Here is the input.
Amino acid sequence: MKDSNCGYCMRGELLAKFGIYICDLDVSTLILFKEQSKPGRCIVAYKDHVSEIVDISDEERNAFFADVNRAAKAIHAAFKPDKLNYGMYGDTGCHLHVHLCPKYKGGDEWGGVFQMNPQKTFLTEEQYAEMIEKIKANL
Here is the structure.
């Protein structure tokens, strides 16, 4: 099941508006969020275009959360955040996904809820590539 208007489904230009493909996991895709005011911020998007966690089987849900856990471990190993926040929204995109948002003590928004897309920090292609390699090395 794919939606031709969904960046998670179609990748390409639609995904490039907000993220960079890192790799496929067991039942999902790992994406680096382009806005990096929280170094290491990623998204784990389920492989199919479903809106709700209740729309998949228990087995698929468990596999999806195993992918989230795998990505979280890689982010912790690569970037050493003090906390990793997990956000599940999707009321506009309607594709099951989890934002993994590293938080750092003394940093921007420490102790508060992260902004969805603060539009503060964008990197060079080389910096994105370095981040992706750090994550992949820890998967």
Summary: Residues 56 and 62 are 10 Å apart (CA to CA).
